[in-house]
Every structure is written in C-alpha cells, then in structure tokens.
Amino acid sequence: MSTTPKDLNTVANASGERPAAEDLRQIISAAADPKSIISAFGGPGRLNFVLQALDRMDQACPDVGYHVFRRIPGESGPQAAERLCCLMQEWDDGLRPSFPALARAWLKELGIDQESSAAKILMLAAARAEMVKGIVPLCAKPANDEPDYHNRSHYLQVFQTCCYLLQAQRELQQTMLLSAQNDPLLQAQIGDYDACTLMIDGITHDVDHPGCGNPKDPLSQKQVRFYNEDVSSSTLYPLVLGVVGGAKETGSFYSIYETLNRFTDPGTPRGDARKAIEGFRNGQTPEQSADYFVRPDAAFWACAAILTDADILLSAACGEEAFARGGTKLTKEAGKAGLSMDFTTTASRQFFFDNIVGPEGLLSGPARILFNPIYQQMRQKNELALKPS
Question: Is this model's pTM higher than 0.90 or not?
Fold first, then answer.
C-alpha cells in the first residue's frame, strides 16, 4: 500500500511551472524512506492537508518571482534594505507564495541541481516550516497562535536574506579585487551542498518556536543552552533520513546543520560564533567542542557568518523603522510569555547593539560591505541619544 499522499487537484503558477506541491509529492515518492518523511508531518492525512494548504497559498499568490529577494547587481545596502522592508510588510500581511515555491525559485536562481539530495531536503524542510507548532496552516498570514516575532514571516526573511547574501558574495567575488579585501570569508567558494545547508538553516532555524526564551533547568535554574534551536533542528532529522536513507549520511549532514542552527541562539552561542568567525578571519584555527561540530574550511565559516547576519540584519541594519517594528513584535511576544520587557527603548536597542550584534557589526563579507555602514550609523545615533543632555 502506498505511503505517499493521494494526488491533489493542483494548478500551475503564473510562470507555467507545475505546482510546488506536485514536486513535493514526487520527492516523497522517490525517497529512500518515504515513511520517515511522512512521519515528520504527522502522518499521511496531515501531510495531505499541508500540501493542499501550500497549493492554496500558491494559487492565491502565483507571482513567485516578485517575492524573491534577489540581488540586483550594483545595488547599495540602503536600497536593498528598503526593498527587504517593503517585502517584509507584505509577508506579514500573508501576501506571499508558499515556502516550497520560493525555495524552488531560489534553487533555480542560484543554479543548484534540483535533483540533488540537499535540494530535495530543502524543499521538504520548506514545507515543514509552514506548519505552526506541528499544526497545518490555513493561509500564509501568521496565525494567532504563532509567536509575534519568531513566526513564519521571520523564517522567510532569514531564508531570503541568506540567499541574498549568497548572491552578493558571488557578485563581489567577480567585481572586487579580493586580494585587497584580505578577507578569507569573502573569498570563500560556497558550493551547492553548503548553500543548500545554509538555506535549510535559514528557513527552519526557528520552526516550532514557543515564543519565549530557552527554559530553565529545574536544578541549576540556568537556561538550557540550545533548547529552542535543537527543537527546531529535530524537525529536520526525519526529512534528511527519508531522502538519503543511511544513518551515517544523515548524521554527517545533520551535524553541520545543527551547529549552524545553534549559532543563532541569541545568548552565549551567538557570542561563541562571533568569536570563532572573527578568529577564522584573523587566521586562527577553529576548535571543536562538545556543543559544535565545526569544519576547518572557509566555506563553513562563511555560511556561519551569513546565517548569523541574516538572523539579525532586518533589525540591525535596515533602518530605524525596521528596528522599531521588530522591537514591537518582540515586546508583544514577551508579554504573552508573561515577561514585562520593552524592546523598543533606546536602552534595549543599545543592549542589542552591544551584546547581540557586537561592536564590530555584521560578520559576513557581503554584509560588512553593504550593510555595516547602516548598522554603524544606527549605533552611533543611539549612543548619542543615551548621552545626558
């Protein structure tokens, strides 16, 4: 008896492509272990509901290309920031195609083979990311039970920013004298496998986020490191296993994915990542630890820098309005979690600049060139506002 969901009555999008839901069904049918994939969605019935929901999103918003935050050659950082803010407003309003449709568009945009295992995992991960705490969504607009900040609009922004920075890296490698940059991260050649891993991290890094910080250990009363990040990462494992089949191959891919995801923890891990990335840039040999599985090559650290930048770029380097909107969302989210915290104040903004972003600013090669001037300007303005008159 087949374990794949029954066929859907789907329609092609505006470009004449077959629906993304159809691609997903074919990926599942040809997978090494379809049952593992289906289990990640909660069973055949729920998977079928997910595919139907994706189909509705794509029928309602067939112009996929408009929502691809692609790099425009020669575009300045402020111009890109303005475009991202405009798109984010539409995504917050639910005006977007499905995640798999956008993931497929980016695979084509970056010239990545859609038949590769990593590309198939990305498509499946994008579909799983549309589920809200394991529940099938009804539409693209963030639902009432989604966190105000850590919701699907945020996943999409981080995913697309990762893709944008990947494109910018390639453009800058072609147009700039890299020897003069003296930046091994900017010079890193990010292959298709690493690019897909980065994109998967971007779209899934906060999946099933509870809308609050990591819980405290009942004995030590200290926050459990990586708890929320590891919950998100766990949603990917059965998808990887289903595509590649073998436990060894699954573990190899998953360990890199999990480490990159852990670097997005806003506490000590982000500081660990920042220190390690800067260390690699300055010629230091990265060290292994019990918490992170790191590779010694430049492509890995370039991906780590891009992901950590993408997670905070909208608030850190897209202007005052974007920061205020993000702060308002975080304040609402914290309030629902029972916390009286205001992320819109000048003092909270300075804490973000000092402890989350860091004085050196964004870390990846393209973000430093394009967006760090915006960040430094915002930081200086905020420091002046804090000084007594």
Answer: yes
